[in-house]
Design goal:
By secondary structure, the protein is α+β, with helices and mostly antiparallel strands. The protein is built from 9 helices and 4 strands. The protein has 3 domains: 2-55, no CATH class; 66-109; 116-198, no CATH class. A 4-stranded antiparallel β-sheet has the order 1-2-3-4. A hairpin with a 5-residue loop joins strand 1 (133-136) and strand 2.
Length: 248
């Protein structure tokens, strides 16, 4: 997008995407609207549930709003794309087979019961929680403040008005402060999906080894005649053509 040329604009667009509760998002949109470019109008053309965490469903515990997974897969198979279809499938199968094993080995090397990324974020939240102040009325939850930012935490419902706990499944700094006040270990409140057990279950099912092509039982009706070779002008493309707004 053309708006990314300005450092201030880039920062505001980032916060508009990554804020976790509606009031913060509206504040960022207001600041964005004060800049000369018409970035706010362009942003709001897209459904908010698809790119803004303030409006995302909290069933899936995930805070990502980008398409890095697709970009990574395209880069992963880039060298295969110019090969015959059967060879593409065979080499992709081998890559996936090895990838499943590598990810399982990676999980077995974890020093904690949760993923390293989860623990990195949790540790950062713990540090912020130490700077928070807390008030408790004995019934309707905790009021936790960090400077001018103040939120309501209801531990029994695993909810905070910042919505970060609901979105990610990892207690936010405000939730951690409330849980510590209740003498509850915040690490026990991390969602199961970040656990080593869940990770091992995800990568536990493997692809079976396959013998060479000469051992394959191919029925006559399964055989496919090769396509006619059509030579085109210029060097063949090996990279995907990006859309004009692919960097969003």
């Amino acid at each position: 997008m053309k708006y990314w040329k300005s450092g201030d604009m880039k920062k505001l667009l980032w916060w508009s995407t990554w804020s976790t509760y509606e009031e913060d998002f509206k504040d960022q949109l207001s600041a964005l609207g004060e800049l000369p470019e018409n970035a706010t109008k362009d942003l709001l053309k897209h459904p908010l549930k698809g790119w803004c965490r303030d409006y995302m469903d909290t069933v899936c515990k995930n805070q990502m709003v980008d398409n890095n997974f697709i970009e990574s897969f395209n880069s992963w198979v880039l060298q295969l794309r110019g090969k015959p279809m059967l060879r593409i499938l065979e080499e992709t199968r081998l890559k996936i087979m090895n990838r499943l094993r590598e990810k399982e080995d990676e999980a077995r090397s974890w020093t904690t019961n949760y993923s390293p990324y989860c623990m990195k974020l949790f540790t950062a939240h713990m540090m912020i929680a130490n700077l928070c102040n807390i008030d408790f009325n004995g019934k309707d939850g905790y009021e936790v403040s960090e400077g001018d930012d103040r939120h309501i935490v209801i531990p029994v419902q695993k909810k905070c008005t910042c919505r970060s706990w609901q979105l990610t499944g990892i207690p936010c700094p405000y939730a951690i402060k409330a849980l510590l006040h209740q003498k509850i270990d915040p690490m026990n409140e991390i969602n199961w999906w970040y656990s080593k057990k869940a990770y091992l279950l995800t990568y536990g099912t493997k692809l079976l080894p396959v013998r060479g092509e000469k051992f394959w039982k191919v029925l006559p009706e399964h055989k496919m005649a090769p396509l006619d070779i059509v030579k085109t002008d210029g060097r063949p493309k090996v990279q995907r053509t990006r859309e004009k707004d692919a960097a969003i």
